[in-house]
Design goal:
29% of the residues lie in helices and 22% in strands. A hairpin with a 7-residue loop joins strand 4 and strand 5. The longest helix has 31 residues. The termini are far apart.
Length: 302
Amino acid sequence: MRPRRKSLFSRAVDVVPVFAVVGIGIAGVFAAMNILVTVPPPLIDGSPSPSASVVPTPPASPSAVAFVTTTALVTPAPTASLPVSGPTIVHSAVSATDPNNAWTVYISYPAFEEGTTPWAPQIDADLRTEFEATAAQWEQGPAATRQTGAKMNSLTSSFTTELLSPALASFTLAWVDDSTPGDSPRLTFETLNFNMGTGQRIGFNDLFVDSSTALALISSESAALLQGQLGAGYEPSTAVDGTSPTPTNFRNWALTPGGLKITFGEHQVTSRDGLTPSIVVPWESLRPVLMQTGPVAKLAGF
């Protein structure tokens, strides 16, 4: 007897599970691919951006979240559109006095007026946090030893603006620490250099193709410039040691329209008291070792 042929409905029921499995597999692959392609990067919370009438709204934080991939990628810092004019600087300060009159501290530093540059709130907050920590460390360290008589330990600072443009800002801070009994106040320097498009500080390695080659060039230029500046007070042995191509000797560098300004500490390049020479190595001399796409490329004439 011929087997009875299944109805169309019965045959459809038998086939459905097979197509269902295949369909689910295809849908799963498509969904996975779609997720990998379309998932947006995580949002970064931050403080309110500057007024839209001055500059476009910048990213909320100077740091970026890197994507997780099979190959390590370096995600560039987010950037913000810059205004046509340079930022406005206001003097800000961290100050305190010991209730027992053992010490006093007054740190004056540059702050950016909010709305005149995209990253003003972030930069100002970072600087204030840093200088408050510096003051606290000093209060618990050198200032904790009371001097004889009525003399108080003191820490003060002032700053000089070296460069201020829509894209770059550079400052030199002078620190005076009078907390060593019997000795003259200790004078030291610190430089602050900012990329105003990212709100981040510019490091020495950000400027040059190879930092070792750059140090060698700056060392050579510095020796010659110092000899012309100090004249009869130039002491070859001291100057050569103080301008040897090490990061420590050239840690106090600032950006200027004419070149890289180097400020030397007391007794670093001369034994004469009270001298803290500074020189400017021209951008033209530095061009062979500068990054042509670095933060100072336009300033250097690339």
